[in-house]
Write a structure and sequence with these properties.
magnesium; disordered N terminus; globular; single chain; 503 residues; biotin; 8-stranded antiparallel beta sheet; Rossmann fold; D-amino Acid Aminotransferase, Chain A, domain 1; binds ligand MV4
Length: 503
């Protein structure tokens, strides 16, 4: 008997320790594999779609996530109660919690994800960089260890060259980062960074990197099995973000050459190998103006934006995760993987882009999703539902696929126009702004896109221009006596929309 015989058994019942669209997304793939599903839910999610979709469901406590979705013991108890052998944590919540991963293993259960050790190493940016040093991975010049003495750190910063970035070792997603432009500001900024890191992460360790001023944020999807096979599934471009929250992602990136793609892919595989990575993971890089790339960190979960990778590779990442967790070998090699077409994802948040992206609360009075060729909507809501205030305000992920980037963009615009949401402000209009923006269309953008180009008025202008065009065309049609009471006006109104991009 192999020592990990438990891991070799196929999974017959899977508990999904998450909610919303990702819980549904996971259950759909499980169902296709003949795997029974168990939902867990908080009191706020009694009527949620993921609860109805699952074969069984267990209530795990009150609405606040620290009393429900974040309580590892309750998740494990729900497995015991239902006989689920494995847990899929989705993203967020417990998905990158190494102590939870250890608890799961100790309970004799399978976590659909990497080992607790891999999670722990990658959970600390300095430990992650140290592990990756075994391989020849490009990293931003800076300190390899935590800086403690302010004077020593300042000296190091001067050597690296300003502007520099102070980062928290325990941070992630931009939390606890401080840009320092001049040596004079260093001491103060470092003290702030340390105290911020201490209060936010309970770990005051910080380090220094040269600040790459206009980077693109590019990440590589990897999959590793428990037999030592690791492949990459190419890149995702995630530069369109604000306050470190991604809004638009796409695959492939419009700037990578085949050579850079291959090099980045190999680096990502090496980073994963440095911790014997198993499951689905994402290796994050920044790319500078010279197309030089640098490893930043690794996310040890399935990411929100995984669908764009699924669409260009034809691989169902959830199924692969489940197969890997059951001990199966990857059924394909690197050479079997090819990029086909182009995919774009827009995160539809319950937020008001015209009002600094402030979260909007309310009920989905109208909710009709776009359909048709090349359109995928991953969501967890239907008409009449309220967006709970307790969790992430994402309503849906709107993903379009096309034979090339142009088709994926036109399809995204079409899908945004078809998407009908009332009762709540959303980022749909912002998505259209991005799709129509010259910088996005030409692929000439970086992480500063939103700050550089987007203003609240950008959306108003978009609305007003459309209203104006509609009015002008209506008047013209009326003058030409083409407007009857029925079909013609409707037919023509869709014609004028086609001209929209010219204005
Ligand atoms: C950087 C960087 C520039 N230079 N590191 C942001 C998220 C986290 N994973 C790392 N991030 C960055 N690290 C160096 N050395 C730029 C980012 C970055 C960013 C920084 C400030 C404001 C917005 C940003 C958006 C994306 C990435």
């Amino acid at each position: 008997m192999p020592e990990n015989s438990k891991l070799q058994a196929p999974i017959s019942k899977l508990l999904i320790a998450n909610r919303g669209e990702i819980a549904l997304r996971i259950m759909r793939s499980a169902k296709e594999m003949g795997v029974k599903t168990v939902a867990v839910y908080s009191e706020a999610d009694r009527n949620a779609l993921h609860v109805r979709y699952a074969d069984e469901a267990v209530c795990i406590g009150p609405a606040p996530s620290n009393q429900s979705y974040l309580v590892g013991e309750k998740i494990i108890d729900a497995c015991k109660l239902t006989g689920a052998e494995a847990i899929h944590p989705g993203y967020g919540f417990l998905s990158e919690n190494a102590s939870f991963a250890q608890m799961v293993a100790d309970a004799g259960l399978i976590l659909v994800g990497p080992s607790p050790q891999a999670m722990e190493t990658m959970g600390n940016k300095l430990a992650a960089k140290a592990a990756a040093l075994k391989y020849n991975i490009p990293m931003v010049p800076g300190t390899e260890e935590a800086v403690q003495d302010v004077d020593e750190a300042k000296q190091r910063a001067i050597e690296v060259g300003f502007p520099i970035l102070i980062k928290a070792a325990a941070g992630g997603g931009g939390k606890g980062m401080r840009i320092v432009e001049r040596a004079e500001d260093f001491e103060e900024q470092m003290q702030l960074a340390v105290s911020e890191a201490t209060s936010a992460f309970g770990d005051g360790a910080v380090f220094i990197e040269r600040y790459v001023t206009s980077p693109r944020h590019i990440e590589i999807q990897v999959l590793g099995d428990s037999h030592g096979n690791i492949v990459h599934l190419f890149e995702r471009e995630c530069s369109i973000q604000r306050r470190h929250q991604k809004v638009v992602e796409e695959a492939p990136s419009s700037v990578l050459t085949e050579e850079i793609r291959q090099k980045m892919g190999q680096c990502a595989v090496d980073v994963a190998r440095s911790v014997n990575y198993t499951g689905a993971g994402t290796v994050e890089f920044i790319l500078d103006e010279n197309l030089d790339f640098f490893f930043l960190e690794m996310n040890t979960r399935l990411q929100v934006e995984h669908p764009v990778t699924e669409l260009i590779t034809g691989i169902d990442l959830i199924k692969e995760q489940i197969k890997i967790a059951s001990g199966e070998k990857l059924s394909f090699s690197q050479d079997d993987l090819k990029i086909s077409g182009h995919a774009i994802e827009l995160r539809v948040y319950a937020e008001d882009p015209a009002n600094n992206f402030l979260p909007d609360i309310g009920t989905l009075q109208t909710y009709n999703t776009p359909k048709g060729n090349g359109v995928r909507v991953d969501d967890g809501f239907e008409r009449g539902m309220e967006i709970p205030i307790y969790y992430d305000p994402m309503i849906a992920k709107l993903v379009t696929y096309g034979k090339d980037r142009g088709e994926a963009m036109e399809r995204m615009i079409r899908a945004i126009e078809e998407y009908d949401i009332t009762g709540i402000e959303t980022t749909l209009g912002f998505g259209k702004f991005v799709m129509q923006h010259e910088a996005f269309r030409t692929g000439n953008f970086d992480t500063h896109f939103v700050g550089k180009y987007f203003k609240a008025e950008s959306l108003k202008k978009q609305d007003e221009t459309e209203a104006l065009i509609a009015a002008v065309i209506a008047a013209k049609l009326f003058a030409e006596k083409e407007v009857g009471l029925g079909g013609t006006a409707i037919k023509n109104s869709s014609d004028w929309r086609k001209n929209r991009l010219k204005y």
